[in-house]
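Q: Predict the assembly, please.
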Amino acid sequence: MSVALITSMTLSDVPAVGVVERRNYPVPWSDGIFRDCLKAGYLGFLIKQHQTLIGYCMLQIGFEESHVLNLCVDSAYQRQGHARKLLAHMETVSVARQAQMMFLEVRPSNPRARALYEMNGFNEISVRKDYYDTPTGREDAVVMAKALVA
Ligand SMILES: CC(C)(COP(=O)(O)OP(=O)(O)OC[C@H]1O[C@@H](n2cnc3c(N)ncnc32)[C@H](O)[C@@H]1OP(=O)(O)O)[C@@H](O)C(=O)NCCC(=O)NCCS
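A: Predicted assembly structure:
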């Protein structure tokens, strides 16, 4: 069994991340959004297998709370536990930085992601109306939260 390794994302990783992003989201982030996040001090993480980028995530840590801004595993590598591993890593980093709550938004039309988050202890707390762009208009976001235990 090959081991997947998690490392920090830097600006030089953005072009490769952008390729995976565009393959896996109907409305992908631009490379500029990833760069802006890193420049703002948000924490990006990569997961790689044999030097191949198979997924990544972006985490914003604020006062006593953290916010998952992006989490993606390339389609060829999905359903092998990589997203769960990235989520656990973000949780560990959040706890280490004294966050007590972790938040994220997810599209109601994304049952895979919702199942992942529910399985990992996130609960729905609210809905943001017309939060996301879609190829045909707008879509609400389900806001989910998890209390972190140090
Ligand atoms: C959602 C996503 C990150 C899941 O990544 P993944 O590496 O396949 O997830 P994991 O293998 O860690 O799965 C963990 C759990 O999530 C749920 N899950 C993941 N894929 C699923 C699927 N296709 N159908 C149903 N449940 C699924 C399951 O509960 C799964 O546990 P199990 O395999 O033991 O049943 C991935 O599908 C993805 O990147 N999609 C495109 C981008 C995206 O939608 N990101 C989320 C934005 S909020």
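The longest strand covers residues 123-134. The helical segments are 14-24, 31-39, 82-96, 111-119.
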